[in-house]
Amino acid sequence: MKYCTYIALFFSLILNAQIDPVEQDSTVVHYMIIEGDSIPVTSVDLNEVLVLPPLKFSDRKSRIRYIILRRKTLKVYPYAKLAAERLETLQARLEGLESKRDKKRYAKIIQNYIQDEFSAELKKLTKTEGQILVKLIHRQTGRTTFELIKELRNGWRAFWFNSTASLFDISLKREFAPIDVEEDYLIEDILQRAFQSERLKRQDPAFEIDFYSCVSKWAAPKATTSDKHY
């Protein structure tokens, strides 16, 4: 579908960028002073672990909706994660090119690459998967797909892509807002459960998300005998 081509144009600017691995040591050494002597004390910084509430569904329809949303989210999340990983390196590479001609040539090379290697895969996404992808790109980069296209190409192209994508009920300006949109909360819930089960590799969002506030607002009421648990 056409809207996938517009999303692919963004990925055409990020896929070919390479990331240099950097080893990070989370071990921190502190020193205790005992009778004038410095005694090293080693501690390890641990990541915060969310305590996820049990899933509760008011009816069968809600449960099926969650399962379908989970399948689609798990499918498109790796693309959004890839976008965040490549974006910073790509921008540095473009900034290293002095002339507009070199930048244009570089963009053209990547565009040809994506058309050959990646467009076909993105075109397999359904409309709803494309909508989720746009939201997750914002979650992982802190910028909407529209903003990224505008920055990496130009404003007119971003406007045109967004206007055409809107014909398919997809706005490239869509933000990820789990505190305001119930579906976004469900997506965040799906991600957190997938991170904890190691089904997906965790990548922190580009902005703070108060997950517990989202749970308080959107979670189902206390279970009754008719509630379904997953």
TrEMBL record:
Residues 80-107 form a coiled coil. InterPro entries: DUF4294. Keywords: Coiled coil. The keyword Coiled coil applies. It holds the Pfam family DUF4294. It comes from Winogradskyella arenosi. This is Uncharacterized protein DUF4294.
